[in-house]
Every structure is written in structure tokens, then in C-alpha cells.
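Minutes, project check-in

Agenda point 3 was the complex the collaborators sent over. CS summarized: two entities, 526 residues total, and the question is how they sit relative to each other. Sequences were read into the notes so everyone works from the same version.
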Amino acid sequence: MCGIVGLYLKNKSLESQIGQMFAPMLAAMTGRGPDSAGFAIYGDEVPQGSIKLTLRHDDRSYDWAALAQRTQEQLNVKVEFVQNDLAAVFKITTDAKKATQYFTSQAPEVLILSAGRSIEILKAVGLPQQICDDFNLQAMQGSHIIGHTRMATESAVTLEGSHPFSTGQDLCLVHNGSFSNHNRLRLELERKGYAMKTENDTEVAAGYLTWRMDEGDSLDESLHHAIKDLDGFYTLAIGTRDGFAVIRDPIACKPALLAETDDYVAIASEYQALTTLPGIDKARIWEPEPATIYSWQRESH
Amino acid sequence: MPSMNLSKNSVRELNQLLHDQAGELTEPEWDIYESGGQHNVACGLNQQLNVNIHDHVGYFCAGMNQHANITVHGNAGPGVAENMMSGLVRIKGDASSAAGATAHGGLLVIEGNTGARCGISLKGSDIVVQGNVGHMSCFMAQAGTLVVCGDAGEALGDSLYETVIFVKGEVKSLGADCVEKPVRPEHISQLKNLLNRAGVDEDPSAFKRYGSARELYNFKIDNAY
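CS then shared the predicted structure for the full assembly.
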């Protein structure tokens, strides 16, 4: 069991309230996933040619300013950073490859949670409400957000095993269910050069979508391939820089509900997570069909 | 007439009050508000109560019902009226997967659509769905009747025993050992009676009937111990 929630805003004027709208959704899924929780929020985009990384260090007194200073000098780039609890968001005037290579080799003590122009991933072990409070989710702004509350089955209760998973730029995935062919798929992806950081099955699914999109697939095309190649039971919510998608396995083992109004699209494992959304009593609410792709895309910007 | 608001009181408190009526019936009419998709609302009732729930409910609403008449004025989550023994459960909106699972008796009416596996392992209840049912409905169903006024998803009636299925719309595919069967006058009258009980205005002659071909392993006498 796990809980997944997602919120995609159609009405831009609500972007300043997305954290406030989303935090109660995540907390409402505590019963489905009390082990760890996390969310990926899209917004505050950096210009083309720059990259935004979410980094994390277990030590609250870690000197992020020193790391930023060092990065500026050694890469000869401009770095801005904001610390948020145990994480820090670094905006760097370079590309993703150079930035991630730099931190992997020169600052191996920090964990890279996400890389992209828009995405920020924040996650931790603990109860969802605590995690919302620690990262001050209520105050966050953005265009779309997906979140997860985990009840661990396939790998241990660790930060590394918590969702969302991201293996490509601005791409992330949350998952309720479990995959049965993740070991084979992991080997195949590793042979193609996609390194996984954990033993977790969901990370393999994220890696799979990254590979498909690198091959030129659109989000929808990559999900068509995923339905064929991913074996197991799952409800997935996927975020990209400008898109949001939901799919369920062909047997529809895991629950999902979609709600849509003129202002937003929301997904949740259970209706309980939707009750606090404004205008939910007037929303169109339905259960997504099995093996069917539901996606929403913003105009490219 | 008692009423309870589930944003203020717990489901456990509500269910205890409803169970307290099982011995001596003192309060037959109940109104429930703001259930907000919570699970296990009005489960295990065993008395001729009329319970109106004026909101959406989560998993297993009206499970194990005996004698009570429960109406949900909203949508229901998975496993509504699962293992019902008797009584009437009516969902004014949609129901999720496994509606009426393993139910032994009584009548379940769903005015909207249901998700997958409606009436899975049905053991004697009657289920009337005014909309569509999802895939694998009536999987391994043993007794009782499913009536679908809309369409049915893939693998309808897979591994069916004695349950009878009536469908008015399209059937995407039939499951293993489920076949269409002739509709004789006694089936029309059975269906007419059931539609009347459900308060559903449909022409019984517009439905097709499906049942078990009894060709699977367990139907062969040579395989008996």
C-alpha cells in the first residue's frame, strides 16, 4: 500500500497557492503510507542554459554557502542557492551534465535528489505532515506537483527508497504498487548506460521513461511503451517540465481517482485526499480506466 | 431522528450507535453527513434501519449488511456492500472496484457506473447497475444475479458458477467459460421482478443473458475426488 497525490493547475492565478492546496492532500494519505513521504514541485524555472539541482545532506549544519562558493570558483559559473531544512536548491549557470558530474566527484557527501530547469524534489523518512512542515510546503509556489506517502514493500525504509524518483531532467515518478520485472529491466537499462542509484523498483520505472524520452518519445509515447514493458501492478503519476500524466496497470489493481475543474486536475489514491480542494463538490470525479493514459500538457514556454 | 456528522464524530462512534440498535430498535432513521470518503461507514448493521449518507464514502461502506436499507447520496469506494447478507444498499453515484464482492443476499443498486470486478465471487445477492461495469465483473461468481443496464468491460463472468448475468449494452469480451444463453419467458419475468425491486425503469426484453458453460475442470465429474 502507498498513497499518491498530484495537482496540476490549469488556472495560473492559483500558482501562488499550490503548496497550500497540496499539503492537506499529502497528509490525508498518511494511512496509506506512514513510512516516508515526498513531493516534486515544478515552478521557479531557470532560463535555458542554466540548471537547478536539489541537493541534500543529513547534517543540519552542513555549509551550503561554502559549497556554493567552491562550485562558483571551480566551475567558473554563477551559483544561487536556497536552503530548505536538510536540502538546498542550487541554481547554476551551466548544463545538467557538468553540474551533476561536479557534485558527484567533488562533493560526494551530498545527495542529488533532482536536476532540471523547473523540478525540485523534497523527501524524507517520517510522517507526511511532519515532512510538509519541515519543508514548509504550505508556502511553496508552482505550476504542478506530485507527491507520495510510502508503505515500504520492495525495499527498505530509507530516504533513498522514498518517492518521488527522478532519473532524468525534470522527470519524476511516484508509484503505488510493485513491479515484478524490475531486476531484468534494471540490467537492460544499465547496459544502455542508465545507472540506478537504489535497489528500488520504482526507480527502474523512472529510468525506463527517461530512456524512452531520450530515444525521442513524447510523454504519451513513453507511457504506451511502459504499459507493454512494465510488468506488475501500479498506479503511476508522472511529472515533466510542462506535463502531468497518470496511468494504471491493465488489471487496475491499485486505486486512483481523478478530479477536474476549470482550475485544476487532481489525482489521489482515495477521495479523502481530495476533500479539501476548492470547488471539489462541483468537480468532475472519475476512476481512470486501466491501461489508459491520461495526460495534461502546458503550452511550451 | 438521529444524525451524525463524520467530520466531528468518528466512524467507530457511528458504527457503535448503529450496532446498538441490533438488540432493540429504538431509532430506525439515521442521517449521516460529511463522511468525506472515509472507510467502513455503516458496516456490520443487523437491524431494519434506514440510513442515508449524504456524501461520498471510501472503502467497504455497508459491508456485511443485514436487514438495513442504506443509501449513499454520492460515490462509494472499493468493496461497497461486500459480504452483504440481506437488506438494500443503494449508491446514487458511482462505485469503485469489487462492488458487492462475495455478497450472500439482499440487493445492491448502483445508479452510476462501477469499476472493475463488480460482484466478484458473488454468493447469492442481486446487483443492479444502471451504468457500466468494469473488467472481470462476476469473476468466479457462484450464485445470485448481476444486471447491467449499460456496458460490461473485458472478461465478463470469467470462471462463473451459477450466477446469472443480464447485460443490456455491449460486452467487451466474455471471460473463460462464460457464454450467452437464450432468454426464455421465465428469465424475462425474473428480470422484470428484479428491475422492479431496484426501482429501475428498463425494458427486460432488451437484455441478453449470460451464464456458465460448465466446461471448466471443476465441472467434470471425472475430476471429483
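Noted in discussion: Chain B touches chain A at residues 36-38, 56, 58-59, 75, 77-78, 94, 96-97, 115-116, 134-136 (CB under 8 Å).
Follow-up: revisit at the next meeting once the mutant set is ready.
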